[in-house]
Q: What sequence folds into this?
């Protein structure tokens, strides 16, 4: 059970890591030199390009994927799916989502899309496991 909860925690922290990547190195710089603007963080992020923009987009996608993952896990647990099976699938989902973020940051769009689809399929398997 601990490993399963760890997977959920990692999934929940993943958007925060992406945000840190997007803002990294810009937090110590003055705003007038392009440094991070904590007074208007969304405006600042919207103006970013390159890896910062991709990290911000990955952050948003991680937030979008999180409710489905957590919901599927909760439903599977409530309907007594074996923890070992669930933990294995959760770890696969986390690994795929980590690879997704890496592909996003590396600007490998086609691979990123394939990984996204694979993670979605794993999440659907988790959701429908109680039916077997």
A:
């Amino acid at each position: 059970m601990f490993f399963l909860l760890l997977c959920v925690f990692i999934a929940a922290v993943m958007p925060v890591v992406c945000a840190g990547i997007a803002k990294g190195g810009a937090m110590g710089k003055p705003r007038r030199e392009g440094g991070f603007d904590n007074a208007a963080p969304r405006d600042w992020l919207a103006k970013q390009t390159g890896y910062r923009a991709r990290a911000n987009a990955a952050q948003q996608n991680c937030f979008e994927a999180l409710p489905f993952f957590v919901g599927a896990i909760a439903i599977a647990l409530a309907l007594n799916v074996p923890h070992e099976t669930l933990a294995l699938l959760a770890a696969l989902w986390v690994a795929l989502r980590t690879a997704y973020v890496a592909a996003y940051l590396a600007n490998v769009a086609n691979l990123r899309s394939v990984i996204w689809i694979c993670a979605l399929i794993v999440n659907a398997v988790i959701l429908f496991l109680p039916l077997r």
